[in-house]
Amino acid sequence: MTTFAEIAPQLEHQAIEVPSWAYGNSGTRFKVFGTPGTPRTVEEKIADAAAVHRFTGLAPKVALHIPWDLVEDFAALRVYANDLGVELGTINSNTFQDDDYKFGGLTHHDPTIRQKAIDHHLECVEVMGATGSRDLKIWLADGSNYPGQADIRGRQDRLADSLQAIYAQLSGDQRLVLEYKFFEPAFYHTDVPDWGTALAHVQALGENASVCLDTGHHAPGTNIEFIVAQLLRLGKLGSFDFNSRFYADDDLIVGAADPFQLFRILFEVIRGGGYGPDSEVAFMLDQCHNVEKKIPGQIRSVLNVQEMTARALLVDRESLEAAQQEGDVLGAHEIFMDAFYTDVRADLASWREARGLPAHPMQAYAESGHQETIEAERVGGTQVGWGA
Amino acid sequence: MTTFAEIAPQLEHQAIEVPSWAYGNSGTRFKVFGTPGTPRTVEEKIADAAAVHRFTGLAPKVALHIPWDLVEDFAALRVYANDLGVELGTINSNTFQDDDYKFGGLTHHDPTIRQKAIDHHLECVEVMGATGSRDLKIWLADGSNYPGQADIRGRQDRLADSLQAIYAQLSGDQRLVLEYKFFEPAFYHTDVPDWGTALAHVQALGENASVCLDTGHHAPGTNIEFIVAQLLRLGKLGSFDFNSRFYADDDLIVGAADPFQLFRILFEVIRGGGYGPDSEVAFMLDQCHNVEKKIPGQIRSVLNVQEMTARALLVDRESLEAAQQEGDVLGAHEIFMDAFYTDVRADLASWREARGLPAHPMQAYAESGHQETIEAERVGGTQVGWGA
Amino acid sequence: MTTFAEIAPQLEHQAIEVPSWAYGNSGTRFKVFGTPGTPRTVEEKIADAAAVHRFTGLAPKVALHIPWDLVEDFAALRVYANDLGVELGTINSNTFQDDDYKFGGLTHHDPTIRQKAIDHHLECVEVMGATGSRDLKIWLADGSNYPGQADIRGRQDRLADSLQAIYAQLSGDQRLVLEYKFFEPAFYHTDVPDWGTALAHVQALGENASVCLDTGHHAPGTNIEFIVAQLLRLGKLGSFDFNSRFYADDDLIVGAADPFQLFRILFEVIRGGGYGPDSEVAFMLDQCHNVEKKIPGQIRSVLNVQEMTARALLVDRESLEAAQQEGDVLGAHEIFMDAFYTDVRADLASWREARGLPAHPMQAYAESGHQETIEAERVGGTQVGWGA
Amino acid sequence: MTTFAEIAPQLEHQAIEVPSWAYGNSGTRFKVFGTPGTPRTVEEKIADAAAVHRFTGLAPKVALHIPWDLVEDFAALRVYANDLGVELGTINSNTFQDDDYKFGGLTHHDPTIRQKAIDHHLECVEVMGATGSRDLKIWLADGSNYPGQADIRGRQDRLADSLQAIYAQLSGDQRLVLEYKFFEPAFYHTDVPDWGTALAHVQALGENASVCLDTGHHAPGTNIEFIVAQLLRLGKLGSFDFNSRFYADDDLIVGAADPFQLFRILFEVIRGGGYGPDSEVAFMLDQCHNVEKKIPGQIRSVLNVQEMTARALLVDRESLEAAQQEGDVLGAHEIFMDAFYTDVRADLASWREARGLPAHPMQAYAESGHQETIEAERVGGTQVGWGA
């Protein structure tokens, strides 16, 4: 079996973007609960993201959401972030919170609204120039609620046109990353419901377009690690939105609902060349915590990814392959499980300490007084949330 | 085959409660779209419900939601409703929109908050006295998002105690109806997730407690008509919340996602004695429409129930039973499908006309100018929605 | 609204291949029930298929399964079929009933077994020459039961190679049609689990390769008509395997579990150019009936497709498009549902009679004495079933 | 945190019945693969079960399936088993492999067949007398494939009568344990599809009737540990059938598909009083392995239960309860996960050695030569499988 010492060097490469919207209030359609200490400004969101990085060393970038994070001077925001030790990352567009988009954005039957949605993305591309972001991530809320309501096929054609118009404005290393989602907020049909649809569109666009896999966006029973392996094989896995879910798109802490699934996903990532300095796959969280504290919720999340990456790196791939070649079902399964069941937490604590990080980030955060400080300081103003 | 004329008399018994909250704005966690003409007051909601009844003859009662529909003078509200031709119906409690209920209400670990939730229900019972409502319907948002977060078992015991305290305050014909829901807003565990749990609790309470079956609250693949048959058999089916869903609890127009399922459900209702003057099963809609107009959305919904009831009544049950007894799979299935495939719409149009109702309620509503009137009149004020 | 008379001419184009294996005994892993009259030979299977066509005019072709339907002289079998009024259709390969295929066929890690699987397909291509079949349909049972058991990624590469070797042997108009399936018989991972994977492989092969969509092979909640529309848009929908399911791959009578879904699928087929004389999409049944009589089960199935095709043709597409353009959700949905709810059965009965077919094929079959004849005649010998 | 030493004494109580049918050939409806060394007789099955116990100390009982395991002299079989160090356990009835049961057994519309099914169970009760078994476990394959095929409601009433007739024949400590299953082999409706139905029936029977929970028999997304907690609370959890599944009832090695779910289930078992010397909950495997070797597959399975039981015992319940009371979501979750992530394997190896058991049972079995011996010896005769 592989040892922790052998895999430790590979842990240096781990970097997980955290989303600016993770620190605002979020909830369900039934209720959004407010909590003390919630940011009121983009700057406070970035400060929270920087805290996650400070305690873990794992989250060097903050993903932004436009228009939620629109500021007049993105160059200044970039300096602000850098001063706190983080960079601005992926730009996420939003065509689901304007009344005009009731029946879609990039797929809309009305050319005026469709153009408005395209223009919003062009604005995002401009922001990318100012922030130095590489990726424009597009998630569509487009779809319909009733059979007959919409022209499913025509919407695909319009989507292809819209994406083409946006893609044409990218320059240099910039990438368009298209996210798919099984359902919600549309119930009957979703315009990019599965990886096959996302793939068909990014293949039509070209080399700098790829697919974003959100781990919460699949039908029950879907083998997600298979999709990971397939997209890597096809050279079209652009990024991950990590989170976990029990039933729908619950946006819980990654690894919380099914830790073994996260292990299997990371194993295919590593095995397929999606991890490490030579990979261009971006790792992000996309989580909206409803009842837990936000900053430690994000700390827990990046730690979960790190712990599971360590376990996945521990798989003795040579022995595994030998067992597979022999058709030794139980032997191969056991080699695989051996890594999953190995408790890497003590080794990781030492590894962190050796790098000047807290051995136990959750505990260190709790003892740091940071939470109490922001709860005391952030009084007055309007707490941010989805849409604010 | 049974004819429409033979079943027509049974259509007289149909009455479907419409919810007051169907007319306010609703949406998903991503966005609530506003629409012109949305009610600003409880009275305007009741007026909308009355319009549904006026055009269909099917919706003589309005279900209320407390505190959304709290008024100072329920007696006056009752007169107001009666003047518009409708009655006040089921009272629905709400323990999910107050910050105190973040970790539950009737199941809460803190006795103070649990008592607050109980007291809210006692207030609902008082309202029932004033409105003349028979049923107190309890749907719990209680649950947890993470394994370990909550004491699943202890919460059941507390729930049993809380329900007992509420049940003890009912008088006369008043009933407690407990609704179950598979998931949402809690993601990991829900305190009343299935009909078995609801049954266990209402059995412990007594004769005037029963189960509410919401057609959208089940795991994928669940045979809902089986549950209908079982609850009727056990004498514990109290009411229906009708709606439809493709994946989660979409709250779409009943019958829209799977008309054949609605047919099968209504067949078991009729066959099990749940329909007609001798039945105490209450039929309600529980729908929240996001992108369609509210009043015609409700008209379409009650018509769907009526059309499908007519089809279910058309099943030639004698022939069906004979085929079943012979093990004639295809014959029995065909007798069943024959009723489903029969187009009852023209017969129903005539039947309506004979009763002084519009033959085509959807068209009549569109041509009535009612929608234009409320859109013009309801300007200013705050549109109601979930939580308002 | 469109009338039956207007759409009647389009009904002439309908042709649905029936599978030879539909007439043998089949069942579940728990039990296969035998029934009197079950065929003992390929010829008797074809005779049963011919009976379906004789009573319906809808099933002019029989799909064969190799090696189940291997005969020495396929030219003679072709003549035999033609004499009974039907043609031999799609050739289906089988790499799941030989001990060598325990860990896969076209994906196997052992080159010897992989070559054996390729050779089996080359034999199928030879059969196609003799039978005049256009399509080679490949469904793989390949996959694994345990995480770690197999090299998911390597199997994709081997599959691509194997398919290339087979594709290279096609000639003229011959096509390779690749079927995907969500799960079963493998439980953890399936090598072609979704349309995206099938698409990636057939795109790599070339113009004469396309995807087979089996309506029972999806995760719960999947919008199948969306996939139909997408594959037609991409020019890669090769064929349908029709059946229906409640939960897994139940292989029930098409349209039995969710008639409205079949309607929506056929609407997208028609709208996307997949129906009619200019389309190359092949329509097949893939059903294995366990408890009902086989021949009338197939008759019921092709009638279901016909009835639902008629309804889908009835959709007033001009009005529908207008309502969609206006964002009239309820109006568009109603136009769509209007066609679904129209009872076409009487019109179809007349239409059949005008063509010399029985007005009521199910009844005509029951009264024909055919079932009694085969039950009396087919005594002795071994009834065919899966694998025989 | 609790230590292994503290929980070690509780591990002594663990006993898991293994099923006699686990050692025969099994498969899917597509194919049953044969393997060398498969038992040909009941005695050889028991010998295999005894091997599992010899290597693990965890499997002191063998569950039998009637009529698969019918012998003339059960007293002799009991002695045979005892001599090998195991006892005969639960008796499982079978009403799904006789042609008469095509449309059901205990629910059948034909009184003759229904009586035959009842009589079969009475025969099982007689066997229990001879074997000294406590439990009669009843799993019904009864159901229907098509809407309309069967009288769902009437079948419930007949089932209640049949169970009553069987229950009346139990004596002393004998128990009737009723198993539920979501679907398969029936597809449209299953007569005991959920725990609510099983509960309703066993409540009607009396104190010696309880529910069997098979971990693979639920709809996707079902929270199984909730059901465990609820049944324990209601005093009606009779036994477990352990296995795991990814989608349907895959009958894989318990804990293989979702180890964390097994942990959560065992935590609720322990917390609810279902584990230990005072509990009457029976733990069984119900697995049918298709591609792996049978004996080591069972060894792996009982070890998985043991390892996960150890982890569940390690949960620091006092701290957990304190965190829950404080509404500390992340804290409570972390306490819970801490136990799950603890690697207990080395401690368990020492614990086994101290009891004269092999430290590493899988390895010990592989090195023992037992597999090679049975493969060499068991030549000729007919291998047993489902139904043999």
From TrEMBL, chains A, B, C, D:
Q: Name one GO biological process term.
A: rhamnose catabolic process
Q: What is its EC number?
A: 5.3.1.-, 5.3.1.14
Signal sequence: where? Answer: none
> Which UniProt keywords are present, listed alphabetically?
Isomerase, Manganese, Metal-binding
Q: Which domain of life is it from?
A: Bacteria
**Is-annotated flag, keyword Isomerase?**
yes
GO molecular function per UniProt: L-rhamnose isomerase activity; metal ion binding
Q: Does the keyword Isomerase apply?
A: yes
- Its recorded name reads L-rhamnose isomerase/sugar isomerase
